[in-house]
């Protein structure tokens, strides 16, 4: 079995978008030059696009359950897969919401384009802004680390165990592997 086509398209599209977002975010806070405003103008709409795609993805996941993991996968790895996948969903939804809430609490307008302003989702409050700003940075590191672990696990399945798990997300059917049978 392989992942449903919408699940695969969303997975690879969001992988590119989220990696770009992490680098845009880090680049943005590392500069006070003119490009800061330019990077922030990319960061906000892209972050909100990720939020919308994450909701769609959650709906796709509930509608099309993923192929089962190989039956011989050790229980600890099975638990790690489950927890890390739900952590990724939680962070994909929390990061944009925290960014939006943080700007609202700071009293900054959340502009998607020069004439498209989103409503504030929190009242102005300097303490809330400070907490949310710190949380946005800390969760970004957690997201980075979870993505690295996820990448490591994908390579372990694809290159060492060769059990069809990576093929299922690449859309390749591998004969003779638990996930590779259509
Ligand atoms: C998946 C979505 C998102 C990711 C992965 C992400 C990632 C990041 C990262 C890595 C940073 C730098 C953190 C640091 O080192 O302190 C950052 C900063 C920031 N993000 Fe996001 N972000 C996301 C969504 C959003 C959204 C939706 C908004 C606003 C609507 C937003 C607004 C900001 C702002 C204002 C900063 C700080 C800029 C500064 O201090 O110069 N982010 N983000």
UniProtKB/TrEMBL annotation:
<keyword id="KW-0249">Electron transport</keyword>
<comment type="similarity">
    <text>Belongs to the cytochrome b561 family.</text>
</comment>
<dbReference type="InterPro" id="IPR016174">
    <property type="entry name" value="Di-haem_cyt_TM"/>
</dbReference>
<feature type="transmembrane region" description="Helical">
    <location>
        <begin position="81"/>
        <end position="103"/>
    </location>
</feature>
<feature type="domain" description="Cytochrome b561 bacterial/Ni-hydrogenase">
    <location>
        <begin position="3"/>
        <end position="171"/>
    </location>
</feature>
<feature type="transmembrane region" description="Helical">
    <location>
        <begin position="138"/>
        <end position="159"/>
    </location>
</feature>
<keyword id="KW-0812">Transmembrane</keyword>
<feature type="transmembrane region" description="Helical">
    <location>
        <begin position="38"/>
        <end position="60"/>
    </location>
</feature>
<keyword id="KW-1133">Transmembrane helix</keyword>
<keyword id="KW-0472">Membrane</keyword>
<feature type="transmembrane region" description="Helical">
    <location>
        <begin position="12"/>
        <end position="32"/>
    </location>
</feature>
<keyword id="KW-0813">Transport</keyword>
<keyword id="KW-0349">Heme</keyword>
<dbReference type="Pfam" id="PF01292">
    <property type="entry name" value="Ni_hydr_CYTB"/>
</dbReference>
<dbReference type="InterPro" id="IPR052168">
    <property type="entry name" value="Cytochrome_b561_oxidase"/>
</dbReference>
<keyword id="KW-1003">Cell membrane</keyword>
<keyword id="KW-0479">Metal-binding</keyword>
<keyword id="KW-0408">Iron</keyword>
<protein>
    <submittedName>
        <fullName>Cytochrome b</fullName>
    </submittedName>
</protein>
<dbReference type="InterPro" id="IPR011577">
    <property type="entry name" value="Cyt_b561_bac/Ni-Hgenase"/>
</dbReference>
